[in-house]
């Protein structure tokens, strides 16, 4: 079986599974954010539920509107916080930790073999850690809160084999944009991706998180990476705190030799150029060098897709000693408090601010058009986030182009979308 099928089978106590089969699985962890105070809390109470099956298996965090930009968001936070307190949710991260999909792995809650669900579509990010992560709706969260179980349809699996090494101006974001160019937004609906191959050794954990994060943009239920030494070392440096997840889930999952796949696709990382997704779809992808001159009003570096240390280091390297044009809003949001502090210690925040950037506190912010950089009428943004739907980042007449942190930083400098001038990895 594939990696994902083995994980599903283990969680429904079956020896084998077939694509399309419906099963009921035990859930290891459920992640909830602002939706706890939005759709989840009313659904939970409407069902007449009065307890959570296991408060130690719930991870709660506020991240989309932090700090709350208006009264509506503040009320949502109040409701969510009260719910977390009333039902004794053990892993209550509050609103000062950062973005859910960065903080959860940092705290050691995503381990090989786990089945994790979350009230956010980009819960697929956790697939970078050799486990299943997938997003669910408010009613499904309420069912899990009550039973600790949820139904799934076993997905067909597409295997992606990587080889080679990223080019001198290419990042993990370009890899997933290449996949989107090839598969489109409907190329893997309710399917699973499995990522492996010799090229994995040249993809950082940060890059893997980006690829797994945007697997859902192709319609995938999950995107799971094989384990390797790189992941093993990362997990050792991010042990789970005050829980037994690192003891219970410490065995990597590999596909069996006779694993069956819908399709196997091969990608040479050397051949992927810097890419950009034009409005209004993440699969509207072309090489940056074919884009022409697109002047920008805003450059956004952040989100659960690309706000990690690797991204900030690359941006600082490109920006250092230079100045951002006054016509460009260059907004930087580290994905977590831990990253923010590390970037401060490394001097990256100072470099970015000295260049004219605006560094915000960890939050989703502009990615969802929430706050901290909402686009006005006809404004154009190059963003390291995951979606560029019409009106997502602000006014319906605004436009967002998706690109790597390297392209975002280089574009902020030039005032138009472009690639870095020098090797970002030296």
Automatic annotation (TrEMBL):
Question: Which stretches make up the Aconitase/3-isopropylmalate dehydratase large subunit alpha/beta/alpha domain?
Answer: 7-290, 291-415
The cofactor required is: [4Fe-4S] cluster
Which keywords accompany this UniProt record? 4Fe-4S, Amino-acid biosynthesis, Branched-chain amino acid biosynthesis, Iron, Iron-sulfur, Leucine biosynthesis, Lyase, Metal-binding
Q: Which domain of life is it from?
A: Archaea
Q: What pathway does the annotation place this protein in?
A: Amino-acid biosynthesis; L-leucine biosynthesis; L-leucine from 3-methyl-2-oxobutanoate: step 2/4
Signal sequence extent: none
Q: Name one GO molecular function term.
A: isomerase activity
Note whether Cytoplasm occurs among the keywords.
no
**Per UniProt, where does [4Fe-4S] cluster bind?**
304, 364, 367
GO annotation (BP), single:
L-leucine biosynthetic process
Give the EC number(s) under which this enzyme is classified.
4.2.1.33
Question: Kind of enzyme, top EC level?
Answer: lyase
Cofactor-binding details, from the entry:
Binds 1 [4Fe-4S] cluster per subunit.
| InterPro entries referenced in this protein's UniProt entry, alphabetically | Acnase/IPM_dHydase_lsu_aba_1/3, Acoase/IPM_deHydtase_lsu_aba, Aconitase_4Fe-4S_BS, Aconitase_4Fe-4S_dom, HAcnase/IPMdehydase_lsu_prok, Homoacnase/IPMdehydase_lsu, IPM_dehydratase_rel_enz, IPMI_cat
Question: Which reaction does this enzyme catalyse, per its entry?
Answer: (2R,3S)-3-isopropylmalate = (2S)-2-isopropylmalate
Task: Note the HAMAP family from the entry.
Answer: LeuC_type2 (MF_01027)
Q: What does this protein do?
A: Catalyzes the isomerization between 2-isopropylmalate and 3-isopropylmalate, via the formation of 2-isopropylmaleate.
Family classification:
Belongs to the aconitase/IPM isomerase family. LeuC type 2 subfamily.
Q: Subunit details for this protein?
A: Heterodimer of LeuC and LeuD.
The protein's name in its UniProt record? 3-isopropylmalate dehydratase large subunit
| Lineage, highest ranks first | Archaea, Promethearchaeati, Promethearchaeota, Promethearchaeia, Promethearchaeales
